[in-house]
Write a structure and sequence with these properties.
The structure holds two protein chains of two kinds. By secondary structure, chain A is an alpha/beta fold. Chain A has one domain (9-259): P-loop containing nucleotide triphosphate hydrolases (Rossmann fold). Chain A has eleven helices and ten strands. In chain A, the strands form two sheets. A six-stranded mixed β-sheet of chain A has the order 6-7-8-3-9-10, sandwiched between helices. Chain A has a four-stranded antiparallel β-sheet with strand order 2-1-4-5. In chain A, strand 1 (21-29) and strand 2 form a beta hairpin. Chain A starts with a helix and ends with a helix. Chain B has one domain: ABC transporter involved in vitamin B12 uptake, BtuC. Chain B has helices at 2-32, 37-57, 62-86, 91-112, 122-127, 147-150, 155-173, 175-183, 185-190, 195-234, 240-268, 277-295. In chain B, helix 2 (37-57) packs across helix 10 (195-234), helix 3 (62-86) packs across helix 10 (195-234) and helix 10 packs across helix 11. Chain B is globular, with a radius of gyration of 20 Å. The chains are: A alpha/beta, B mainly alpha. The A-B interface holds A 31, 64, 67-70, 85, 88, 91, 93-96, 99-107, 110-111, 114, 117-118, 120, 122-123, 150, 152-153, 166 and B 32, 88, 173-177, 179-180, 182-187, 189-192, 234, 237-240, 242-243, 298, 301-303. Bound molecules: adenosine-5'-triphosphate (ATP) and magnesium ion. Residues 59-60, 96, 178 of chain A line the site of magnesium ion.
């Protein structure tokens, strides 16, 4: 028994060392009941992974806990086998839109520059190459012409592109995005997907919360179905099944026929 | 106007400008974080601090009063943070609770204890005594280069210079993380910025400004300068650096203009005595805010 445990531990350590981002036993609670409970997640290098689940399933909470934005009750996070604190430079993060103050006196180009904070530090001089990188990132999302607008004076889809550009400016290996397609039109969605797939093809790892079930198989390689706990996780072909979806959404997806009791938990 | 101006008007003017800028600087970030009222709260909880300091020492002296005020401000700031986190309520409500409780405590203390034979002046707490901060050793502009005369400058002046240096250094050093965590807190935390301690440090800087200033100029100016110049500056520009620069300009303008108007304004319109400089400075800052709200180039908000 003891021997098995040790072996399991060693195997998992090897799995985590090979994974860009691995989460184990993540549990977060804001009040009495846990928002996520004992979540395990292992990303694959060079893959695009979707987190899918109903509103309030804990998708944003899982991302925030994994990145150290909030403090979990319990849980372990490794980044390329190391501690998150030592690997922050390798992770880029696009929060859900609601976390941003749209009235803040900041221009689009300044927002993109924020992605370079860890390289610039507290007082590092902004040089020509930093500005060039910011302009290049804006160019990649097609927002060059809006560089000098205040951030709140853009449409929702344009804002989403700017935040993707800020993530690009982080020049990370792992890109974590919370609902990058929320409130964007088809053209912007295509543009964002193209950028993300370009990152994947360059060997980067992408993790995104996604709400449109119809496009999951088109866009993503792996999927994590979440409803407080992990319902199912793995390659889209095996995991993204009607049965698993019904379990994740409590049967509300198909019809009212589903008995909520039978899929609870 | 040489000697008289240097001795009587220059020191209060300079102190007024220092106070205004020391409060407006952190006020920019408090305003953007929708915490502008914390300046108000701090400058009010200073009263119970003074009462306690008097009860403990039996002295009406600047040193103990300043310590008491600082102690009260620190207790208030920590208590507000504690209520906000433990009670899981937003900071405005937490400030309301602490501010009311501490102010009420101060009033109770005053009534319960035997302070009737001492003049603890409410008016002083509100308006300060800016006009009385004169420089008796000055004989003219040349005194500005005379070490002996300079040693006789009001102690409030060096205190404000020190406070302003501390605050400006803090903002200069932590400008980027402050801006980041105010604009997008989740992203800032994802970068490893410790937003909690940083926010607390900002409030402590505001407390330093309020406590250093209140004895010289009273809480009216402090409250006005935390809010009016930054709010007016926000309507002049869409860039943070420019906003802070505008707010310093507006703060200095209000201090100088307000002082001059208070001293000479009533004479110009034929009234007899001058009016309170503190009140006039606060009024001018309000007028600047009004003008910016009507004519500032970036008035429109998104929400
Ligand atoms: N700051 C908070 N304080 C208290 N409860 C919270 C907080 N943030 C989230 N919750 C709760 O935790 C649960 C999970 O929230 P979370 O935001 O992670 O869900 P989500 O899956 O991202 O939902 P959505 O699809 O609406 O974005 C919800 O029940 C929510 O009410
Ligand atoms: Mg969410």
């Amino acid at each position: 028994m003891n021997l098995t445990l040790v072996t399991d531990h060693d195997t998992d350590q090897a799995v985590r060392a090979a994974s860009p981002l691995a989460v184990r036993g993540m549990t977060v609670s804001y009040g009495q009941t846990p928002a996520i409970f004992s979540v395990d997640m292992t990303l694959r290098t060079g893959a695009m992974t979707a987190i899918v689940g109903p509103n309030g399933a804990g998708k944003s909470t899982l991302l925030k806990a994994a990145l150290g934005v909030i403090t979990p009750l319990a849980g372990l996070v490794t980044v390329f086998g190391g501690a998150m604190a030592d690997m922050r430079d390798r992770i880029a993060y696009v929060p859900q839109r609601t976390s941003v103050d749209w009235d803040f006196p900041v221009r689009v180009i300044d927002v993109v520059m924020m992605g370079m904070y860890r390289r610039l530090g507290l007082l590092g001089r902004i040089r020509g190459r930093h500005r060039a990188l910011a302009r290049d990132c804006l160019d990649r999302v097609g927002m060059t012409h809006f560089a000098h607008r205040q951030i709140g004076q853009l449409s929702g889809g344009q804002q989403q592109r700017v935040f993707l550009a800020r993530a690009l400016a982080q020049q990370a290996d792992i890109y974590v995005l919370d609902e990058p397609f929320a409130g964007v039109d088809a053209a912007t969605e295509k543009a964002i997907v193209a950028v993300l797939q370009g990152l994947r093809d360059a060997g980067k790892t992408v993790l995104a919360v996604h709400h449109d079930l119809a496009t999951v198989p088109d866009y993503f390689d792996d999927v994590v179905l979440l409803n407080t706990q992990v319902v199912a996780a793995g390659p889209v072909a095996d995991t993204f099944t009607e049965e698993n979806l019904n379990a994740a959404y409590g049967g509300r997806l198909t019809t009212a026929r589903a008995d909520p009791e039978s899929v609870a938990g | 106007m040489g000697a008289e101006f240097v001795a009587l008007s220059l020191p209060p003017m300079v102190i007024g400008v220092l106070v205004a800028i020391a409060c407006a600087l952190p006020g920019n970030f408090l305003l953007l974080r929708r915490q502008a009222l914390i300046g108000d709260a701090i400058s009010h909880v200073v009263l119970p601090g003074i009462v306690v300091a008097f009860l403990l020492t039996g002295l009406v002296a600047t040193g103990p009063m300043l310590l008491g005020a600082a102690g009260a401000a620190v207790i208030a700031v920590v208590a507000i943070e504690a209520v906000r986190r433990l009670g899981r309520i937003e900071s405005g409500a937490a400030m309301g609770v602490i501010f009311t409780a501490m102010f009420a405590g101060g009033v109770l203390l005053l009534e319960q204890s035997d302070t009737s034979n001492v003049h603890l002046d409410v008016e002083h707490a509100l308006y300060g005594n800016l006009e009385s901060l004169i420089w008796l050793d000055a004989t003219g502009w040349a005194s500005l280069l005379d070490p002996v005369a300079l040693a006789g400058l009001p102690v409030e002046l060096s205190r404000m210079v020190l406070a302003l240096i501390v605050i400006a250094l803090f903002l200069w050093l932590f400008w980027r993380p402050l801006a980041l965590s105010t604009f997008d807190e989740d992203f800032a935390r994802g970068l490893g910025i410790r937003t909690g301690p940083l926010g607390l440090a900002l409030v402590i800087m505001s407390a330093i400004a309020a406590v250093a200033a209140f004895d010289a100029v009273g809480s009216i100016i402090v409250i006005a300068m935390f809010i009016c110049p930054p709010a007016a500056a926000r309507m002049m520009t869409n860039r943070l650096g420019h906003q802070v620069a505008w707010s310093c300009l507006f703060a200095a303008l209000a201090a100088v203009l307000g002082y001059v108007l208070a001293g000479y304004g009533p004479l110009w319109i034929g009234a007899g005595a001058s009016v309170s400089a503190a009140g006039m400075i606060a009024t001018v800052s309000g007028i600047i805010l009004g003008v910016a709200a009507v004519a500032g180039p970036h008035r429109t908000r998104n929400s």
